[in-house]
TrEMBL record:
Belongs to the binding-protein-dependent transport system permease family. FecCD subfamily. It comes from the Bacteria. The keyword Transmembrane applies. It comes from Pseudogracilibacillus auburnensis. This is Iron complex transport system permease protein. It is found in: Cell membrane.
């Protein structure tokens, strides 16, 4: 037991240190490069650590008002998508599942597209993330209602409903794109659907910090239940787990966290697929370690992916969703080929 706890502690400590270095790296590098040491000292000053340091007003503004909120939003979104991916893959017992498969991401995207198309986002900057979050909740409500009416408790049925809802919402978004009134509106819609973190502020971080942090902490409690459920429903029942209650609660929590993330970042795919798979290969299948590790792993992945999106074709900025797709699509293909080999074997 002591060895078990020690391993968890070492893994999480190494991941947390890597995350801190990733954040400092992402904040330091940009059109205006700031030395790592100065960046670290300014960050320490920002969180009220009493230190003596000198810095320019420009460096302080660039770090604390421009880059830091963007990087923190990336870390929060990456954490949410990653831990939700781990939870859903354990729940569905399928490594090819990610949070977007249950229709919540497309619902959030449709809400954001409506805000852009009908001009709500020009009234207040809060209307865009607000509409995306409402779209995610409505999408989840529809899927759960249809699932209940169908009287089929299988998670496979839920997955199929999510795929159908994704296709339906994608068709509606294509209609809005086709009838967009001007190029600026069309560009805004396409940028949102590609997923990006441009111009993210402290307000965006404050919108999502509570649901994502609380949701992630709560999800880590279900490590044992997910481990047992991997062995089958009958085994889970004999272990005293209320399968329906546990499953519904995890689904609701992952949907809310995914909706919160998509509300400020747009649709960013593959994070909830790539990070859990990498961690599972390195750390093993134990969800009691995978869940907390995915919080740090997802944050590291998206922070570094956002850095690549900013610097790869400078001064042109790629959407971070595009970078994640470039990385994630080959991994997805690899997973499919690997699962096919397992079946044939």
């Amino acid at each position: 037991m002591n060895h078990f706890c020690q391993r968890h502690f070492i893994v999480l400590l190494l991941l947390s240190i890597t995350l801190v270095f990733s954040i400092i790296l992402a904040i330091s590098i940009g059109p205006i490069t700031i030395p790592f040491k100065q960046t670290a000292l300014i960050l320490m000053k920002k969180i009220q650590i009493p230190i003596q340091t000198t810095y320019s007003e420009q460096a302080w503004t660039v770090i604390t008002e421009v880059r830091l909120p963007r990087v923190l939003v990336a870390a929060l979104v990456g954490s949410a998508l990653s831990i939700c991916g781990v939870a859903m893959q354990g729940l569905f017992r399928n490594p090819l599942i990610e949070p977007g498969f249950i229709g919540v991401s497309s619902g959030a995207a449709l809400g954001a597209v409506c805000a852009i198309f009908f001009g709500w986002s020009s009234v207040s900057p809060w209307f865009l993330p607000g509409s995306a979050f409402v779209g995610a909740i409505v999408s989840l409500g529809i899927i759960l209602l249809v699932w209940k009416v169908s009287k089929k408790n299988s998670v496979v049925t839920l997955l199929l409903l999510g795929i159908g809802m994704n296709a339906f919402f994608s068709a509606l978004m294509n209609v809005f794109i086709a009838i967009s009134k001007n190029e600026q509106e069309l560009r805004s819609i396409v940028y949102w659907l590609q997923g990006g973190l441009e111009a993210r502020t402290w307000e965006h971080a404050l919108i999502i910090v509570f649901p994502i942090v609380v949701g992630a902490v709560v999800l880590t409690i279900f490590g044992r239940e997910l481990n047992v459920m991997l062995l089958g429903e009958e085994h889970a029942k004999t272990s005293g787990i209320n399968i329906r209650l546990t499953r519904n609660f995890i689904l609701l929590l992952t949907a809310l966290m995914t909706g919160s993330a998509v509300a400020v970042s747009g649709v960013i795919g593959f994070v909830g697929l790539v990070v859990p798979h990498i961690l599972r290969l390195v750390l093993g299948p134990d969800h009691q370690l995978l869940l907390p590790a995915s919080i740090f792993g997802g944050a590291i992945f998206l922070v570094l992916a956002d850095l690549v999106s900013r610097m790869l074709l400078e001064p042109i900025t790629l959407q971070v969703g595009v970078v994640c797709a470039i990385i994630g699509a080959p991994v997805f293909i690899f997973l499919i080929l690997r699962s096919n080999q397992g079946v044939s074997a």
